[in-house]
Amino acid sequence: MRFYYRTINVRGRDLINTAIGNTPLRKCNFLSASYNSQIYIKDESHNPGKSSKDRAAWFMMEDAIRNEKIKPGGTFVEASSGNTGISIAILARKMGYRAKIFVSKTCSQEKLRILESYGAEVELCDNSRGMHIFNSTQYLAQAYAANTENAYFTNQYYNSANIKAHYKTTGPELWQQSEQAVTHMLIGVGTGGSISGIGRFLKEQNRQIKIWGVEPVRSVYQGFVETGMVPEFQELHDAIEGIGRTFIPGAFDPQVVDRIFQVDAEESKDIAKQYYAQTNQLIGYSSAAVLACLEKYKEEMNLKEEDQLILFFPDHGDRYIQKLYKEKKSQSSKIYNSL
Questions:
Q1: Where does the Tryptophan synthase beta chain-like PALP domain lie (predicted)?
Q2: What are residue 79's DSSP bridge partners?
Q3: What pairing do the DSSP bridges indicate for beta strands 25-27 and 38-43?
Q4: Residue 334, pLDDT above cutoff 70
Q5: Contact 261/311 with Cβ under 8 angstroms?
Q6: What does the DSSP assignment read for 319-336?
Q7: Do residues 216 and 238 touch, judged by C-beta distance below 8 A?
Q8: Cα Rg for the chain, rounded, in angstroms?
Q9: 173, 21 in Cβ contact below 8 A?
Q10: Which of 27, 107, 189, 237 could bond to 244 as cystine, CB 3.0-4.6 Å?
Q11: CATH of range 53-153; options 3.30.9.10, 3.30.930.10, 3.40.50.720, 3.40.50.1100
């Protein structure tokens, strides 16, 4: 299957020609044997910016340029846990634009270094709790764009192009690569764009496909999917970089999601180390949360031998060395001991 080639042509001038998508879908024999099912991994680290966020960044930026929401040489602005910011910085640099990225102070050091290496101006913020919270990444990004000449806030949390990117590219790829045999998807939920776009496309092909999401404990998606209400918690959700929210973004479509599972940060850290020990593969934080979810809820999932479960791995573990692979392993977790 071909790459998704994207070329922006503005006033007769091609600004960029890049290849995003067509990332591999590979069977994981280790996991398939462990869970007695057909388990595949969609590895998004093969995108040019090494994450699935290349897809959303491209669709949002292409829309802005085509519709003249930003002029040549302007600044793309985003609130990001890192990966979307990296994708925007890479593409902006190629096209002659600037990038200003607002990240929370919990952003990994690896991501900060990458952002700076691509020339992005980075601003650290107290939190990432939504547009109406002062000092959040979203609030400050919006305020900066509104008060800066020729600056455009891509706003991944409320930009429909975020969903469209996965509906138009990732979903069709998965359907074709799986030879129309996928029965279950398991995806970490951050902005909601990935699970919404993929889920919408796959449900249109086969309503029986189960679309499952993963988030940290005390994140709000699970309660919202189950009750239609946004739950309130006394404590913030576990810090699993890239997933979990205190608000429901406009990029999340609950109609295509069958269930949201919750895992904690320590489970995710421990399973990342265990998976590396077994496979010699470094996985990202939200990918580790997906694996922790599979282990924690394997009885409830009730997967059959013929089922084909696809795990969505949005980025690579080399962006989380300090957070996942350098810290002392928790002594309390028993996860994967049975494998």
A1: 17-314
A2: 102
A3: antiparallel
A4: no
A5: no
A6: G-IIIIISSPPPSS--TT
A7: yes
A8: 19
A9: yes
A10: 237
A11: 3.40.50.1100
